[in-house]
Amino acid sequence: MDEPLSALDALTRANLQEEILRIWEQDKKTVILITNDVDEGLLMADRVIPLKPGPGATFGPEFVVDLPRPRDRTMMNHDERFKTLRAQITQYLMDIGIEASSGETAITLPPVRPNTSTDWKNDTTALKPSTDDIGRERYLEFTQLDKVYPTPKGPVAVVEDFNLKMQKGEFISLIGHSGCGKSTVLSMCAGLNEISNGGIILDGKEVDSAGPDRAVVFQAPSLFPWLTAFENVSLGVESVYPHAQQTERDDIVEYYLTRVGLGDALHKKAADMSNGMRQRVGIARAFALSPKLLLLDEPFGMLDSLTRWELQEVLMEVWERTKLTAIMVTHDVDEAILLADRVVMMTNGPQAKVGKIIDVDLPRPRTRKALLEHPDYYAYRESLISFLAECDQH
Ligand SMILES: Nc1ncnc2c1ncn2[C@@H]1O[C@H](COP(=O)(O)OP(=O)(O)OP(=O)(O)O)[C@@H](O)[C@H]1O
Ligand SMILES: [Mg+2]
């Protein structure tokens, strides 16, 4: 089986994992499963063998998964053996990932500020991105937000009474079951989807249309296929840094493309790239705009776990430096905790709203390794998993 479940949401994926296990136990088939998900490996396999990346790819060390069957997702979360195996495999994959990627950049970011802030007209000098009022309350505010979609059976309130306040510089993960309305909330915030009732205020201004002060990264990359990586990112950069020198703009483009590991593919056409590479271009483009608000809708969902971890690191590094305000929709519980100051869990739709919010009080800067070893980590994980499981029962 070659990643049969990778493109599915967490719930469907979990159900199908159980189904595959049931058939496997019944028929006693010999199975090789290729997966991008360490947890899936640990849940299903007798042995997990990471592949050492090519050229000349070879098998890495084998990890024997001696956890008793049947294995239960929630129970495993408490199992010391599970935690140890999970940490070991993760560490192994990260180590070979680091060996393989030598994407360090020699370019320094020019100290120019994008033309997306309301105060820019008074201040056209080259400045470092403004971080003075980090922590300002109610920088972004959703008030009694509703979304009603027309359906053949009449209008349906998909999202109803969604309320949330964010500080400037805060990072929020938005998590919830497939179809509950996460993308709907995000697209209203981006100004790409009409607000039915209520409102969204960003930095004192009501959101009523799309603008360069908000950058969006979707799950599937949306690039101009006939343009190169460099040209795709340049398009945005030209529009928000009209006051900078051409060389400064080029440096910004090259800096972010190198940061996401595309230093060697700057002038490759988007059409000739793999999905993972295209997604990196999309992420570089969003970062390069230094927006007030970064909206990420499962940006790493389609990527393998190594690439995902790498890009999470890039995201954290850029976020630490720029302190931009960000909302990220994800299905991945670990990703939600790793990145966020708060995890916002949405109830199942219709009439989805904020169900529960947890503060992630883990030290920054964070690394995946330190997090997996942190004594509180599995308690956070538990509370997310059990919220999602509770939603299932309704
Ligand atoms: N344009 C539309 N017209 C009618 N219904 C829609 C429209 N867009 C979305 N919906 C419905 O709204 C609900 C929420 O959709 P949305 O895409 O926001 O969910 P989501 O939480 O992002 O799901 P996923 O995790 O699968 O991406 C779904 O039931 C969907 O069918
Ligand atoms: Mg969605």
How would you describe the overall organization of this protein?
With 394 residues, this protein is α/β, with parallel strands linked by helices. It has helices spanning 10-27, 38-44, 73-76, 80-100, 182-190, 229-240, 246-259, 275-288, 305-322, 333-339, 368-373, 377-392, and strands at residues 47-48, 51-52, 58-59, 63-64, 140-149, 156-166, 171-175, 197-202, 205-206, 214-217, 293-297, 325-329, 342-346, 354-359. It folds into 2 domains: 10-100, no CATH class; 120-392, Rossmann fold (3-Layer(aba) Sandwich), CATH 3.40.50. The longest helix is centred in the N-terminal third of the chain and has 21 residues, at 80-100. Bound molecules: adenosine-5'-triphosphate and magnesium ion.
Topology:
Blueprint: H1 10-27, H2 38-44, E1 47-48, E2 51-52, E3 58-59, E4 63-64, H3 73-76, H4 80-100, E5 140-149, E6 156-166, E7 171-175, H5 182-190, E8 197-202, E9 205-206, E10 214-217, H6 229-240, H7 246-259, H8 275-288, E11 293-297, H9 305-322, E12 325-329, H10 333-339, E13 342-346, E14 354-359, H11 368-373, H12 377-392
Parallel strand pairs: 7-12, 7-13, 10-11, 11-12
Antiparallel strand pairs: 1-4, 2-3, 5-6, 5-8, 8-9, 13-14
Helix pairs in contact: 6-7, 6-8, 7-8
The structure holds adenosine-5'-triphosphate and magnesium ion (MG).
